[in-house]
Amino acid sequence: MTITFPAQPQPSTLGKRILPGVSIGALVVIAIMVFSFALHMVNIEAIGSANEYYTAAVKSMLQSWSNFFFVAAEPGGSVTVDKPPLGLWIEAVFAYFLGASGFSVSLPNILAGVFGIPLLYGMVKKYMGELAGVVAALVMAVTPVFVATNRNNTMDGMLVFTLLLAAWAFIHATETGKARWLLLGAFIVGLGFNIKMLQAFLPLPAFYALYFFGSKEGWLKKILNLGIATVLLVAVSLSWVIVVDLTPAENRPYIGSSDDNTVMGLIFGHNGISRLDNQRDNNPPPSGPQANQPLNPSTPPQQNPGQGQNGQPNNQGIPPQGQPGQQGQRQGPPPEALTACEGQTQGASCSFTLPNGNTINGMCITPPNITELACAPQGMIPQNGQAPNGQPNSAPDGGPNGGPNGGTPFSNETGSPGVLRFFTSPLSKQMSWLLPFALISILLALFGSKIQLPVESGIHKGLILWGGWLLTCVVFFSMVSGIFHAYYAVMLAPALGAMVGIGFSQLYKWGKNSAWVVIALIFAVLVTLGFQLFATSQYNEFSWWMLGTGLLLGLGILLMSVSRRAAYAVILSSALVIPAYWSVMTVTSGSNNNLPTAYEGQNRDGQDGFLASPRPNGGERPVNTELLAFLQASTQDVEYLIAVPSSQQGAGLVLATGRPVLYMGGFAGQDEVVNAEDLARMVTNDELRYVLYGGERNNKQDIANWLNTSCQVVEGIVLTQNGPGGAGSGQEMKLYECK
Questions:
Q1: 336-364 tens-digit pLDDT
Q2: Gyration radius from the chain CA atoms
Q3: What is the pLDDT of residues 270-286, one digit of tens each?
């Protein structure tokens, strides 16, 4: 059987003009934009200060042009953020007019997400018609990670929008054969590099392939043009880098998370090789201060074990894994926690009662150094999901070394590398809900037209661009074992939407003449629905109403004999219900602030769907008011409020005061921002008086020795640094006064 497909999009109902220059499809896309904006704004107060590391940096950047240009992480300009400047510059502009807050610095990403919708619609429409464009826009709008990431200041939303603009330019270069559009595309990708560095290059192979195989120019000329575009791309990408690295180190901040105090070292080290394989890198993750926990007064010795300040339960009486128990407490989970998960599966809800009568609700996970499941209370459940079955949890501070046995880095967020990474917990909830349909669409698109070079058919051009973008990201993120946060999956959202739109539109057009196409459509949707139901069960979120998606599919099949158009619409809607629900739950359940993520299901708090209560204050981590009041009263005559080991302890203080807070070790405590001699000189020059130190795995011996010999401990202010769940981990930190 020969399958034919029109090279150019054919008119459809969505393409009909109801106003001059305005089609029905365009109005539908406007409605999708309104819906998307409303979805992004629901429960917006829950984001709090968003990612405090970046929000504090934006507040610091507004205090001087030097801080602005170098993207200083704190007002004193001691160290830079471990990212390039463009995204943070844009956030700083918004903060300048609206004030520095979680909302103002996240607003650029929200707007980027909303305005990316018509961009995607227009580009998919060009090759596949109105129907494909509308479906692509709708799918991207209801992708959970798309919503979660845009409601944050991690800059990935702006990066995706920038890459969509670049795709638009490459399409024009392909269709017109004019080099200026190719150069514009390369220029825009270079701007993307200045938002998230090498991450911006992920769709570049698809962009180049579209021009190379789709443009009608001569092959040699296309190679030459691509070479020139690449030179421009590199020049734009490295423009800020070269200026900063040529600036003497004493005239600029330390380059955060670099090994050699250069941006080039940051690009190819921490933001390069460490993204592929982080076992060689001891730095904790740079993109979100997962360990940025509040500092609380330490537990008085006379308190009962397992109790924190004011006698309140601390992790419900269970010491953190790997931490010695206090006053005879056993290490690891108690027997009741193990019994509660007998016969259960990873991620199942559980509860047990302690000997003191406290009832604990939580989730079954596999703790480090233990091969059986245990019921972990909320304070100990790994952030953004459980560790994969049989894999140790990541380090308590989110570090790359994984669990005590050297488990997969970041497995709490993204699971272990492999071909099923996007289809299993904890990554499957981000953007994979329609991935089976998109992958089937890639296969179908291969048969959409006769293959010829240069490529002339719209479907094959769409396949090269969007299928190439999607497969490149899927393969890359499935294989990497280094620094990989779950919200990076937003990179796949545009290509996912495009391929679903292309596949659905293709089947709709084929179905006019081929009865077997209905079977293919039903099969693709059945596979997708099966995966969706499986995925919901991974997060204990399966409900009987979800079986209604199957009923919708059945209704769509019955409608085939009545109205083909209505039938296809109902069949498509059956596959959109669960991802749309997950997106709504993402914004209403109070998602994580520092590391944006899709809704975690009942794994988060054991409550059903819409009944789940948001985290208090959006999960905001409060600054210790006792310490803050003391420092404010005692440091009015010195420049720095305090020196702290890293941004983990200092970002909240910057947000609370707007004053310089010296990050001695940069973001995670391992940067060589200052040494003991630098601190001594600052004390002598009346720039610094107080230093918070101790309890850090990255403590530097020279600083510790200097503090012990030259400074005095401030009595009555001893603090503990909290663990990932917000409970005390016993890492004592002392406040030193240096004169």
A1: 888 888 877 666 667 787 766 666 767 77
A2: 27
A3: 888 888 876 544 444 44
SS in 3 state form for 145-158?
Answer: HHHHHHCCCCCHHH
Please say whether the beta carbons of 418 and 400 come within 8 A.
no
> Average pLDDT, whole number, for the chain?
83
Rounded CA-CA distance 412/387 in Å is 5
Q: Are 209 and 249 in contact (CB under 8 A)?
A: no
Residue 410 to residue 412: CA distance in whole angstroms: 5
Which residue from 716, 690, 714 is spatially nearest to 636, judged by alpha carbons?
Answer: 690
Residue 94 CB-density burial (10 A; 0-12 exposed, 13-18 middle, 19+ buried) = buried
Taking a C-beta distance cutoff of 8 angstroms, is the pair 214, 465 a contact?
no
Least Cα distance to 394 among 379, 381, 409 occurs for 409
Distances (CA, A) of 704 to 145, 284, 516: 42, 21, 74
Contacting residues for 322 by C-beta, under 8 A, at least 6 apart: 331, 368, 369, 396, 404
Please enumerate in sequence order all residues whose Cβ is within 8 A of that of 13, keeping only pairs 6 or more positions apart, or say none: 24, 565
CA distance 354 to 375: 12
Rounded Cα distance, 396 and 291, in Å = 8
Q: Which residue has the tokens 């929000």?
A: 55
Q: Which residues pair with 359 in a beta bridge?
A: 353
User: Mean pLDDT over residues 127-134, rounded?
Assistant: 95
Which residue is it, tokens 């200092």?
650
List pLDDT tens digits, range 163-214. Answer: 999 999 999 999 999 999 999 999 999 999 999 999 999 999 999 999 999 9
Residue 34: phi and psi, rounded to 5, are -60, -45
Q: What is the mean pLDDT of residues 554-571?
A: 92
Task: List, in order, residues 6 or more apart from 266 with CB less than 8 Å away.
Answer: 82, 197, 255, 256, 257, 258
Q: What is the DSSP string of 541-571?
A: ---GGGGHHHHHHHHHHHHTTT-HHHHHHHH
List for the chain the helix, strand, coil content (%; round to 5): 55, 10, 35
Is the pTM above the cut of 0.90? Answer: no
**Dihedral Cα 200, 201, 206, 207, nearest 10 deg:** 80
Q: Are strands 661-663 and 642-644 parallel, antiparallel or unpaired?
A: parallel
Interacting residues of 176 by C-beta distance below 8 A, sequence separation 6+: none
User: Which two three-digit tokens encode residue 373?
Assistant: 């499941």
Whether 386 contacts 603, CB under 8 Å: yes
Question: Among 160-164, 231-235, 402-406, 629-633, whose mean pLDDT is lowest?
Answer: 402-406
